[in-house]
TrEMBL record:
Entry GO MF terms: ATP binding; ATP hydrolysis activity
Family according to the record: Belongs to the ABC transporter superfamily.
Protein name: ABC-2 type transport system ATP-binding protein
Alphabetized Pfam families for the sequence: ABC_tran
Gene3D superfamilies given in the database record: P-loop containing nucleotide triphosphate hydrolases (3.40.50.300)
UniProt entry tagged with the keyword Signal: no
InterPro entries: AAA+_ATPase, ABC_transporter-like_ATP-bd, ABC_transporter-like_CS, ABC_transporter_ATP-binding, P-loop_NTPase
Domain ABC transporter, first and last residues per copy: 8-235
Length: 318
């Protein structure tokens, strides 16, 4: 049993924009040392949730606690936020940026120096400290942004899409940094569209849809519970389907997975049914380049849940 307060605890959170309730009784807990992956389609409310946790939006109901304390000037200081857009001074060096952020977070000069030392090590940016931000690549900027956000050693680190616009090597470097910060005891809330990243880094993930986070759990366990041994069939087409063909594919349970040439569906089909499927596609005027099967991943679950949400009726507050 964990008797320490969670890094973040959200209970029954409701947020409304005008008549539209975007968060409808949302519950979430991120423990210290945990990386929680916040997933959800565009417009589901991830930014709204992050803004509420950071005290920028006032809920109409529910509570947010940061290390056991309700949102206040004091408790907000225990959060480090790395926003989606790089928030650094482009004409200053990484070191100068950290100095500015150190001053802004109210640290004395000696405290700021030791914080800079620690944060540069933790974000692995020592070798670039004296370079100007505007000449750094996306990955390095992101790491400097993380260093700036952790200067005050927060208990909760919120990362909003940290690997957007970052190449593969830099993405791996960022993953190492995030993992080390969680191992050092920070709770990490990672909002991401990168499902491979979530599967790799997060012990738990949650899908924000319909104003709540459901389901939540270990990625592998959620995949196994949902698909129960079924496999994903992926069909690569030779040419884009017409709108009518795309509608027919959608009706048969297929979703486009990577542009409109690749379609996938979860099913019971065995390898030997690939030929029969290819024939059925040919009859519908769709020539197939490849049909393959694989174990479903978090991306398959995401597509499955997004389809479910899309077919659910939209609710509006009275
Ligand atoms: N200030 C606002 N006034 C009215 N509606 C808003 C406001 N901010 C966001 N919304 C709406 O609330 C919903 C949730 O928006 P939000 O930006 O939180 O989603 P998101 O999950 O962060 O999306 P994305 O992944 O695209 O960043 C959207 O339908 C959006 O249009």
């Amino acid at each position: 049993m964990n008797l320490l307060p969670a890094a973040l605890s959200v209970a029954g959170l409701k947020i409304r924009y005008g008549k539209r309730e975007v968060l409808r009784g949302l519950d979430l807990e991120v423990t210290k040392g945990e990386i929680f992956g916040l997933l959800g389609p565009n417009g589901a409310g991830k930014t709204t949730l992050i803004r509420t946790i950071c005290g920028r939006l006032k809920p109409i109901a529910g509570q947010v606690s940061i290390v056991g304390q309700p949102v206040s000037r004091q408790s907000l200081r225990r959060i480090g936020l790395v926003p989606q857009d790089i928030a650094l001074y482009p004409h200053l060096t990484a070191r100068e940026n950290l100095e500015v952020f150190g001053q802004l977070s109210g640290l004395t000069r000696p405290q700021a120096l030791s914080a800079m030392e620690w944060a540069s090590e933790a974000a692995n940016i020592r070798e670039r400290l004296d370079e100007r931000i505007d000449i750094l690549s996306g990955g390095w900027k992101r790491r400097v942004n993380i260093a700036a956000a952790i200067l005050h050693r927060p208990d909760l680190l919120i990362l909003d899409e940290p690997t957007v616009g970052v190449d593969v090597d830099a993405r791996n470097g960022l993953h190492d940094v995030i993992q080390q910060l969680s191992q050092a005891g920070m709770g990490v809330l990672l909002a991401t569209h990168d499902l491979d990243q979530a599967e790799l880094l997060c012990a738990r993930v949650g899908f924000l849809r319909g104003g709540v986070i459901a389901p939540q759990g270990n990625p592998r366990a959620l995949i196994d519970e949902t698909f129960r041994g079924q496999r994903e069939i992926i069909i690569e087409l030779r040419q884009n389907p017409t709108p009518a063909q795309a509608r027919a594919l959608d009706k048969s349970g297929f979703s486009p997975s990577n542009g409109s040439l690749s379609w996938s569906r979860i099913g019971q089909e065995a390898d030997r049914s690939a030929a029969a499927l290819a024939e059925a596609f040919e009859r519908a005027g769709l020539s197939t380049r490849e049909i393959r099967f694989r174990e479903p991943g978090l991306d398959s679950l995401f597509i499955h849940l997004s389809r479910e949400s899309a077919s659910a009726p939209e609710e509006t507050a009275a």
